[in-house]
Design brief:
Elements lengths: L1 H17 L7 H7 L9 E5 L4 H15 L6 E5 L3 H18 L5 H13 L1 E5 L3 H24 L7 H15 L3 E4 L2 H11 L2 H21 L5 E6 L1 E2 L57 E2 L2 H5 L4 E8 L11 E9 L18 E4 L7
Parallel strand pairs: 1-5, 1-8, 2-3, 2-4, 4-5
Antiparallel strand pairs: 6-7, 8-9, 9-10
Helix pairs in contact: 3-4, 4-5, 6-9
Protein name: DNA recombination and repair protein Rad51-like C-terminal domain-containing protein
Length: 354
């Protein structure tokens, strides 16, 4: 146990030395995430519509522009042209926010970002597993190459530096998997339930292994959708009055919905439908619930919030909160770690970015 703890400490220290990946939103990075998104972890973002994809791309673009990462990979079931348009819009918005408006300078930086992005399209969960298996194979090849090409003592230092640069360039520093819920939907319709859950347990192990064992210590981002069709309070069912029956009416089946698991429940949602919130309050919870959560180290939930008034700006607000933090914030020392669960902030879209 002591040896394993020492290995994990060295790994976390190394990841900390790489620095976090910024989201580009000061409150989210500093107050909610306490620095940013850590490399070497699996992070889920559950959001409505394309909000999650937008936030994921913003993390990717900010990290590339800040030179925090050198190479990223996007895995998506959507057509490449769709993702490329969103990606270019995200780069343009971020450059504009940084005051880079000259056409030549913006074009150079945009081209540099795009050259460091790999895009892989998959059509189902099997395709995703194949792409991840290729990354696994790349990691194994790196280990073999290092073992076979072990340098002589006199040449150790320059060769080690060259190998380190080669390894960092070989595997991505961020892996962004978009529209993960659509992959899960088709997966569960095509597979037996027990087989599907067994496959997802293996996927969870593979994602964690990749985030922790690849030489690039990648941040793996999974973009999920949300289910906001329920309301916090439902109108009482209407039954005929008792005097219309000669005998007592039959018992009505209980319509009480099961409580939401604490790791899935927003702090802005009531624990039960009767928990003192105004009628019509929109519930928002991650699609696939615990099935999705089992894959993650950190889980962010994005919920669109109503405006204080029709005339108020900005027109849209989004609440971002941490539903789950299984790893805690590593600050270089063993012992109790600060956790980010239930930390939240309000963000707003402005000029194409958060």
């Amino acid at each position: 146990a002591s040896a394993l703890a020492s290995i994990e400490k060295r790994r976390r220290d190394f990841v900390r030395s790489l620095g976090p990946c910024p989201s580009g939103c000061h409150d989210l990075d500093k107050h909610v995430l306490l620095g940013g998104l850590e490399r070497g972890s699996v992070v889920g973002i559950s959001a409505e519509d394309e909000d999650g994809v937008g936030l994921g791309l913003q993390v990717l673009v900010c990290s590339l522009l800040d030179k925090v990462v050198h190479k990223v990979q996007i895995i998506t079931p959507k057509p490449p042209s769709t993702i490329v348009v969103l990606l270019k819009n995200s780069i343009t918005a971020e450059l504009r926010a940084r005051g880079i408006t000259a056409l030549d300078g913006a074009a150079v930086q945009e081209r540099d970002c795009l050259n460091r992005i790999m895009l892989s399209r998959v059509f189902d969960m099997d395709g995703l597993c194949e792409v991840l298996a290729d990354l696994d194979d790349a990691a194994t090849s790196e280990v073999r190459r290092c073992a076979l090409n072990k340098p002589e003592v006199g040449d150790a230092q320059p060769v080690e530096k060259t190998e380190a640069k080669t390894q960092l360039a070989a595997t991505p520093n961020i892996i962004l998997i978009t529209h993960f819920s659509s992959l899960l939907t088709s997966f569960f319709t095509q597979r037996d339930n027990s087989a599907a859950h067994a496959t997802l347990r293996l996927l969870a192990s593979r994602l964690r292994r990749l985030s922790r064992t690849l030489s690039s210590s990648p941040l793996i981002l999974l973009i999920n959708s949300t289910d906001s069709g329920a309301t916090a309070s439902t109108p009482a069912a209407h039954f005929p009055e008792s005097h219309s029956y000669d005998i007592p009416p039959p018992e009505q089946p209980s319509k009480r919905k099961p409580s939401i698991d604490p790791t899935l429940r927003s702090i802005f949602n009531p624990a039960s439908p009767s928990s003192g919130h105004a009628s019509g309050y929109k519930l928002n919870k991650p699609t696939f619930g615990l099935v999705f959560t089992q894959l993650l180290d950190i889980h962010l939930l994005c919920t669109r919030a109503p405006r204080p008034g029709k005339a108020s700006l900005p027109r849209a607000l989004t609440l971002i909160e941490v539903l789950l933090d299984d790893i805690g914030l590593w600050e270089g020392e063993r012992g109790l770690r600060r956790r980010r669960e239930q930390r939240w902030t309000v963000v707003a879209p402005y000029n194409g970015r958060i």
